[in-house]
Design a protein that fits this description.
The protein is mainly alpha-helical. It is 54% helix and 5% strand. Among the domains are: 1-40, no CATH class; 140-229, no CATH class; 280-372, no CATH class. It contains 15 helices and 6 strands. The structure holds zinc ion. Zinc ion binds next to loops. Zinc ion is lined by residues 300, 302-303, 306, 312, 317, 319.
Length: 373
């Protein structure tokens, strides 16, 4: 393989007397290297994305024999079998090529949507907030920073990798491209304002820890911002996780949520689709395509008065007798499993459909009941 400018007349190489072909691509220590100018490792992204997809396909094959996997197991399998392909080489090949990174992101999004049972129209941020899986772009940057920490703090000065790092810092200082300039590029490309450390501090544990903290903050704040700005995710706005005493007070941006642990896959996925607005209620369906109508006109199919939201159908609409009967049964069962404090809260929120809906889906004591309803 010839890397860089190719000579006009192609040279001939021999092993002894046997002619050796000049190839355009070769696997070297696990990396697919190609001779494309400026894109030595571009092919490696495609190879790894294809392998991650193939492994995902094998897991789907298992699901056909076992039935839908519990979410926790599916996330574990993703981290064990798919994530290693998506993060392979992230320490040395930094994602300066956005289209290459998008290939990996596409595989991850497809997998998380499959785990959650939602469609392509679902908001991307929710794929991470509900499963606790970090976006692959940020995860790869964090792994690269971890490698920087290893080189800077655990390798001796005479070790080759440490010397290579020092050289990369010097090259960057002199204005040439190096691993350090690529790291700065991907870090400053993240949402928020991540400050890259000064060259003189780049080898210190404090600066690396600070950089890692900034990247994590940028990731969680970016996802939270996307959640807060999406009207589709209104049922998840202001959502809290319980503290040690069970009080819902902690804001946790990324976490495998409690309702994801419900065993019945059909019920679990139905509630997931409601929460991330990937359902078939009018407020969602009537907003798609060329015939999309404004939100205020996406009226309930039964009463034709209110906007057809999940909370309206679940808690308020009285235009369909069957719905009223089912709601009465649900309410009775809900109040039976609720604690005294929860019952008081439900009564206090009775006139506010949205807040009541958010409260009901957050009740740990009634999650099996809610997903069934
Ligand atoms: Zn209605």
């Amino acid at each position: 393989m010839i890397i860089g400018t190719k000579p006009r007349v192609s040279p001939r190489f021999h092993f002894g007397v046997t002619p050796t072909a000049i190839v355009k691509e070769k696997v070297y220590v696990g990396f697919t290297v190609s001779d494309s100018p400026g894109a030595l490792l571009r092919e490696h992204y495609e190879v790894k994305a294809a392998k991650a997809k193939a492994v995902g396909g094998a897991i789907c094959g298992v699901e056909q024999l076992t039935g839908t996997l519990p979410t926790k197991r599916a996330v574990q399998l993703y981290m064990a079998c798919v994530d290693p392909h998506l993060t392979h080489g992230s320490e040395v090949m930094l994602d300066t090529n956005k289209s290459a990174r998008k290939e990996l992101e596409s595989v991850q999004k497809g997998w998380l949507r499959r785990i959650m049972g939602v469609g392509k129209r679902s908001v991307v941020a929710a794929l991470h907030t509900e499963t606790g899986v970090e976006p692959i772009g940020c995860r790869r940057v964090l792994l690269a920073i971890g490698y920087l920490r290893h080189m800077a703090t655990q390798c001796r000065p005479e070790q080759l990798v440490r010397r290579a790092l020092v050289e990369a810092i010097e090259l960057d200082w002199l204005g040439y491209n190096s691993w350090v300039s690529d790291l700065r590029s991907v870090v400053t490309d993240l949402p928020g304002q991540v400050q890259f450390p000064d060259h003189r501090k780049l080898l210190t544990a404090e600066a690396i820890e600070d950089l890692e903290g900034q990247v994590k903050k940028s990731m969680t704040e970016g996802i939270q911002r996307e959640m807060d700005q999406s009207r589709k995710l209104i049922l998840l706005h202001g959502r809290c996780e319980p503290d040690e005493e069970g009080n819902l007070v902690n804001h946790v941006p990324l976490k495998l949520r409690h309702y994801m642990l419900v065993c019945d896959a059909r019920h679990r996925r139905a509630l997931t689709r409601v929460l991330v607005s990937n359902h078939k209620y009018g407020v969602e369906l009537l907003g798609y395509g060329k015939g999309a109508v404004e939100r205020a006109r996406r009226l309930c199919r039964f009463c034709r008065v209110e906007v057809e939201t999940p909370e309206h159908i679940w808690l308020r609409c009285e235009a369909k007798p069957q719905l009223i009967v089912m709601r009465a049964e649900f309410t009775e069962e809900l109040l039976a499993v609720a604690t005294e404090g929860e019952r008081e809260m439900i009564e206090a929120l009775n006139s506010d459909d949205l807040r009541l809906m958010k409260y009901v889906v957050s009740m740990r004591s009634a999650v099996a009941l809610v997903v069934g309803w």
